[in-house]
Amino acid sequence: MFYQLYELNHAAMAPFRAAADIMRFAYANPLNPFSHTPFGRTMAASLEMFERTTRRYGKPEFGLKQTTIGDQTVSVREEVVWSRPFCNLLHFARNVPAVSRNDPRILIVAPMSGHYATLLRGTVEALLPSADIYITDWIDARMVPMTEGTFDFDDYVDYVIEMLHFLGHDTHVIAVCQPSVPVLAAAAVMEEARDPLSPASMTLMGGPIDTRINPTAVNKLAQERSLQWFSDNVIMNVPWPQPGFMRPVYPGFLQLSGFMSMNLDRHLVAHKEFFMHLVKNDGEPERHRDFYDEYLAVMDLTAEFYLQTVEEVFIKHSLPKGELLHRGKRVDPTAIRNVALLTVEGENDDISGVGQTKAAQTICVNIPEDMRMHYLQPDVGHYGVFNGSRFRREIAPRIIDFVRQHSRSAVKPPLPRVIKGGRAG
User: Fold this and answer.
1) Are 279 and 45 in contact (CB under 8 A)?
2) Predicted confidence (pLDDT) per residue in 186-226, tens digit
3) What is the C-alpha separation between 173 and 90, in angstroms, rounded?
4) For labeling, which of 11, 74, 78, 401 is most exposed (least CB within 10 Å)?
């Protein structure tokens, strides 16, 4: 009943949250003389802190309306081009000049690990001037009715394959963090079937390919607990009246509590500084709002996908051991021969330790040496692998160069061959 109690508490706080918001506007109104005093600013800051800490943060927007190509600013239109019960494929359609219409086509597979795909807004923004970008927009499991069936690791791999078939010849795929394993598995399945629409290149960033290497706190937790413990303690049914009523999920609010507890002192300091900036009225709070509006927006995961990922990736290490199965058939990374491989890690990554992503270079033994590359970015943590100034300045250009180097655009595309996978549910 924990999920139901959480929802009840949220509903009970709604009138107090609304009242605090109204009072905050009153104290912050420049027409109110108190708004220009330390007392008024302190009251407004306290009320905003209360409202923000009791709010449920909705799904953010990408908000990428334009990009710069060369010295020209072009408009960007966000559109859904492919849809399934648990995922939409978003295309950032650029109103590009003729010279840019041959830019590489990149599918970014966003992590299904609690946050929405908008966490990769900076990734998309950095790559958009140089590539035609698509991204997986995973759907909150509590919004998917039970009639749509289940969604597990096999379905995830099938979705990736279907999207690559939809996008067609000479598509490059980037997996950020968690999807590194299913994306590598999808490439292996396609290559073993000699699928002509396998990706031209595969970039794995900060992913848990082999979590036995430099295990982090996240990895150690999975090793210390049994799968039954996870099932008993973090899996709950979606409460009424949500569309996914009775669907077993790993709730977003539990995931968020885990995220926050890993760096609790840093979050407490950030909120204290936010409060002081509000009182001083120095214009600094906007960065805090932007970050936490994104960070605190979380989604539920289906129980079957979460538990299967914990078991196969973090407990059994099935992929590096050669024991991972897809639809009952062993996934063979050695079958990958025609997909160029780039692995990217952060020197200070506390989620996927150094070497965990690079392990893909070891298990994909049949990729030619001139089609593989590994890059370790100094002085960045997990988030810095795919966002921030160093990503824009040092990592993104390397990705674009690698993608262009291994484009198949000069090769006549073969006739498509479809791999039939299981339907979600």
Assistant:
1) yes
2) 999 999 999 999 999 999 999 999 999 998 888 888 888 88
3) 14
4) 11
Which pairing describes strands 325-326 and 301-302: parallel, antiparallel, or unpaired? unpaired
| pLDDT band, very low/low/confident/very high, at 262 (cuts 50, 70, 90) | low
Single-letter amino acid, residue 185? A
Token readout for 337 is 């021969």
Q: Over the chain, what HEC string results?
A: CHHHHHHHHHHHHHHHHHHHHHHHHHHHCCCCHHHHCHHHHHHHHHHHHHHHHCCCCCCCCCCCCEEEECCEEEEEEEEEEEEECCEEEEEEEECCCHHHCCCCEEEEECCCCCECHHHHHHHHHHHCCCCEEEEEEECCHHHCCHHHCCCCHHHHHHHHHHHHHHHCCCEEEEEECCCHHHHHHHHHHHHHCCCCCCCCEEEEECCCCCCCCCCCHHHHHHHHCCHHHHHHHHCEECCCCCCCCCCEEECHHHHHHHHHHHCHHHHHHHHHHHHHHHHHCCCCHHHHHHHHHHHCCECCEEHHHHHHHHHHHHHCCHHHHCCCEECCEECCHHHCCCCEEEEEEECCCCCCCCCCCCHHHHHCCCCCHHHEEEEEECCCCCHHHCCCHHHHHHHHHHHHHHHHHCCCCCCCCCCCCCCCCCCCC
What are the φ and ψ backbone dihedral angles of 77, each rounded to 5 degrees? -120, 125
The residue to which tokens 């991972």 are assigned: 324
Q: State the Cα–Cα distance between residues 303 and 152, nearest whole angstrom.
A: 8
Task: Region of 283 please: left (phi>0), alpha (psi -120 to 50) or beta.
Answer: left
Token pair belonging to 42: 């302190």
Q: 130-176: per-residue pLDDT in tens?
A: 999 999 999 999 999 999 999 999 999 999 999 999 999 999 999 99
Strands 87-94 vs 132-138: parallel, antiparallel or unpaired: antiparallel
Dist CA 295 CA 286 (whole Å)? 14
CB atoms within 10 A of CB 358: 18
- Percent of the chain whose predicted confidence (pLDDT) is above 90: 56
Q: Is the pLDDT of residue 235 over 80?
A: yes
